[in-house]
């Protein structure tokens, strides 16, 4: 197609926003000229650059999608040495990783643009339910969608979602493998084998084995293994059938982190106040118990993916998936809720436990295609989704209990044997204390069934080659039922509990795109999102309960103004976006003491992104995010007593969102200094992050540096050395709990041999 349409640019507003992402030198590419339209929708010209989402709900190339989307390609994952989802997401600013807590399971706990996105992880476009710590050995790329995600995924947060794109069988033969060793007892092997069967089918097998300690955290260790076979039939025909299976198991001693310096706001202990930062102890301080703590997980996902091309621009796809996640653990949380650390120099070894299994079954059908009607081109996707999730959750009991037997509570004026080692000294605790208890599964069991039905349609309307309109509409029927059977514990009977939520909600998005040139776009967009009670399906902190079951979904909206450019012969992609997100009916305590939809939160921000090649030998990937997150209305608090409550406006109104750094930035760059020799490095910066809505506890900001060098021994073998946390910076990377902060790994080195045949 060669219709010339680039004309003299006479749109000052478009040029103004374009300057957010482009240095002045790049504007030379938009001067007065008439060029043929060249649409490049295939492979990108850089290993760091991705032009299209793997999600068929995106009906235009990413350049023309009116939404902030960051895609982490395989090359970035490999060069940075990432071996987990959270490590890969370190390259995307604006995402923070939260810590497990009492009602919040240990696992991937993501916050995007300040909003909890724990349930907004998808595998090939289908929600991945249940708590897990996800691997990357079977992934092609990771896609991060910013802003309200309900039009794409149904029930969702206001911040965005993460889509994991799986490796599948292809019509070519290749054999890839890696063998890695490193400090902190690091050992890892992977293999990726693909073979064609005749001319019309292929099989692929990915396997992984991993065993390592955590640098600077002597006791912390874990091992995992996984296998992911897939087979595709009909590679060259109109109908393809892809069958895949994913299995991963892990076993680890989970990290306890470091308690906060608990600040006292009133009373005689104010003079002993902590400053709200994590306690200043040695990096390797571990408050857990080797004889008690563990975490075992298991993930199974089976998928049948059928696609038929009708040959007239229409494709029908049906995907069926079954998944199961188990997450069992006993994990010591160094609880500071009674100020033990500041008052007594001790820590209560609170035992957080979980025995959980989540099963899910989903089916989605979608019709994708393009049509020209009345001279206007439509690129569309319309689909139906149904799903069922079931979570069984319980916890462990210990005999004797885990409180301090001297105080009958979790206050710890002393520590050691007299406390049955449930209290530990703040400095130099002994992880091998002889803690011997019996363990059993609690009779208190929670069961949650969630059923969803959804219908959606997306359309990119091309009025002219310069003007596009992107529309999306989705309707969801969400039903979730909570059952807690009656039980008796220690002679005390507890009645059964039941709660059920039935909710219908509709979400949409609309974005107008103006293209100053074929290699650029300027857009304005609006989108909504809905978060119903029980959003997490029974496995997280946003669970269904008798307190919230009758509430309406929390509604969010997002306004965004952005621009995207492909410059330097389209080798380099740059982007910028200004946005404002609002949640107008957040769940908070109302003036009568009940939980109601009367709260309000808002986030304003700026995002910049870059990916691709500056020169043929010089690649870059990174971005910057500025977030101004505020708790506009946090409801009411009781200023009186339990017997005589006096409800007053929350003193936390106007405070900063927890887990929301004002500034965050990341940059990874590599340069081929000689044929076969590449050097690279990365920097991550995150400013102060609050751990509580009071804004009295926080993790200080930090800057972390990484380095990499690779050498091509020959065409089949490459050696790569990665040094993570080059300066051995002590910083805290998990802060969503108000009781403790997660300690990031210290400096580590790994050497990887990459084999390709």
From TrEMBL:
Q: How does it sit in the membrane?
A: Multi-pass membrane protein
Where does the UniProt annotation place the signal sequence? 1-28
Principal cellular location given in the protein's record: membrane
The molecular function terms of the Gene Ontology recorded here are: siderophore uptake transmembrane transporter activity; signaling receptor activity
Domain annotation TonB-dependent receptor-like beta-barrel: ranges: 259-726
* Motif TonB C-terminal box, chain ranges: 740-757
Query: Where, if anywhere, are coiled coils annotated?
Result: none
Location within or outside the cell: Cell outer membrane
Q: Which Pfam families does this UniProt record tie to the protein? A: Plug, TonB_dep_Rec_b-barrel
CDD domains noted in UniProt: ligand_gated_channel (cd01347)
Q: Which InterPro entries match?
A: Beta-barrel_TonB, Beta-barrel_TonB_sf, Plug_dom, Plug_dom_sf, TonB-dep_rcpt-like, TonB_rcpt_CS, TonB_sidphr_rcpt
Q: Which UniProt keywords apply?
A: Cell outer membrane, Ion transport, Iron, Iron transport, Membrane, Receptor, Signal, TonB box, Transmembrane, Transmembrane beta strand, Transport
Key word Membrane present in the record? yes
Any one GO cellular component localisation term in the record: cell outer membrane
The record's section on NCBIfam families has: TonB-siderophor
* Record-stated family: Belongs to the TonB-dependent receptor family.
**Name of the protein:** Iron transport receptor protein
Q: Which species is this record about? A: Pseudoduganella buxea
């Amino acid at each position: 197609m060669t219709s010339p349409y680039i004309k003299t640019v006479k749109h000052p507003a478009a040029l103004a926003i374009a300057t957010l992402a482009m240095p002045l030198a790049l504007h030379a590419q938009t001067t007065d000229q008439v060029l043929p339209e060249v649409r490049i929708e295939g492979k990108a010209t850089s290993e760091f650059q991705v032009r299209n989402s793997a999600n068929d709900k995106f009906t235009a190339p990413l350049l023309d999608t009116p939404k902030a989307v960051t895609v982490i390609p395989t090359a970035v994952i490999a060069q940075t040495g990432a071996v987990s989802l959270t490590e890969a997401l370190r390259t995307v600013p604006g995402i923070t990783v939260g810590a497990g807590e009492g009602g919040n399971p240990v696992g991937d706990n993501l916050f995007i643009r300040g909003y909890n996105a724990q349930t907004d992880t998808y595998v090939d476009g289908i929600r991945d339910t249940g708590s897990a710590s996800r691997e990357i050995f079977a992934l092609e790329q990771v896609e991060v969608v910013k802003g309200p995600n309900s039009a794409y995924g149904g029930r969702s947060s206001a911040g965005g979602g993460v889509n994991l794109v799986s490796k599948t069988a292809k019509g070519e033969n290749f054999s890839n493998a890696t063998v890695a060793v490193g400090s902190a007892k690091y050992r890892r092997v992977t293999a990726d084998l693909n073979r064609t069967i005749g001319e019309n089918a292929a099989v692929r097998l990915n396997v992984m084995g991993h065993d390592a300690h955590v640098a600077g955290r002597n006791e912390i260790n874990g091992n995992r293994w996984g296998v992911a076979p897939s087979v595709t039939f009909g590679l060259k025909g109109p109908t393809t059938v892809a069958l895949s299976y994913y299995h991963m198991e892990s076993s680890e001693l989970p990290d306890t982190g470091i308690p906060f310096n608990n600040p006292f706001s009133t009373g005689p202990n104010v003079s002993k106040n902590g400053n709200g930062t994590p306690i200043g102890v040695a990096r390797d301080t571990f408050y857990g118990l080797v004889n008690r703590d563990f975490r075992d997980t298991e993930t199974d996902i089976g998928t049948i993916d059928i696609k038929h091309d009708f040959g007239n621009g229409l494709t029908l796809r049906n995907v069926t998936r079954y998944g199961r996640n188990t997450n069992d653990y006993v994990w010591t949380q160094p609880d500071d809720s009674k100020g033990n650390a500041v008052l007594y120099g001790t820590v209560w070894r609170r035992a957080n436990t979980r025995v959980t299994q989540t099963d899910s079954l989903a089916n989605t059908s979608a019709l994708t295609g393009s049509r020209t009607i009345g001279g206007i081109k439509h690129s569309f996707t319309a689909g139906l989704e149904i799903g069922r999730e079931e979570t069984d959750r319980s916890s462990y009991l210990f005999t004797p209990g885990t409180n301090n037997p001297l105080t009958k509570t979790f206050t710890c004026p002393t520590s050691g044997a007299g406390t049955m080692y449930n209290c530990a000294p703040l400095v130099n605790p002994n992880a091998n204390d002889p803690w011997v208890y019996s363990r059993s599964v609690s009779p208190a069991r929670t069961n949650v069934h969630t059923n969803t039905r959804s219908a959606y349609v997306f359309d990119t309307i091309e009025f002219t080659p310069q003007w596009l309109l992107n529309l999306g509409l989705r309707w969801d029927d969400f039903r979730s039922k909570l059952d807690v059977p009656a039980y008796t514990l220690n002679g005390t009977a507890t009645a059964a509990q039941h709660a059920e939520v039935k909710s219908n909600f509709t979400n949409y998005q609309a974005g107008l795109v103006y293209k100053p040139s074929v290699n650029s776009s300027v857009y304005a967009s609006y989108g909504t999102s809905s978060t119903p009670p029980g959003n997490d399906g029974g496995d997280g902190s946003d669970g269904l309960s008798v307190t919230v079951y009758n509430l309406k979904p929390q509604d969010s909206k997002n306004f965004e103004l952005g621009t995207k450019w492909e410059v330097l012969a389209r080798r380099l992609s740059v982007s910028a976006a200004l946005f404002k997100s609002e949640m107008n009916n957040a769940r908070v305590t109302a003036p009568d003491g009940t939980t109601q939809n009367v709260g309000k939160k808002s986030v304003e921000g700026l995002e910049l992104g870059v990916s691709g090649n500056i020169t043929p030998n010089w690649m870059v990937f990174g971005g910057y995010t500025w977030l101004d997150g505020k708790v506009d209305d946090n409801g009411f608090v009781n200023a009186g007593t339990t017997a005589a409550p006096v409800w007053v406006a929350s003193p936390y109104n106007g405070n900063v969102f927890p887990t929301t750094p004002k500034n965050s930035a990341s940059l990874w760059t590599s340069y081929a200094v000689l044929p076969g020799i590449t050097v690279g490095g990365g920097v991550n910066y995150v400013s102060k992050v609050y751990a509580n809505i009071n804004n009295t506890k926080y993790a200080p900001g930090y800057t972390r540096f990484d380095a990499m060098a690779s050498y091509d021994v020959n065409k089949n073998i490459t050696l790569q050395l990665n040094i993570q946390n080059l300066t051995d910076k002590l910083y805290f990377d998990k802060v969503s709990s108000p009781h403790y902060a997660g300690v990031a790994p210290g400096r580590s080195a790994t050497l990887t041999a990459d084999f390709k045949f």
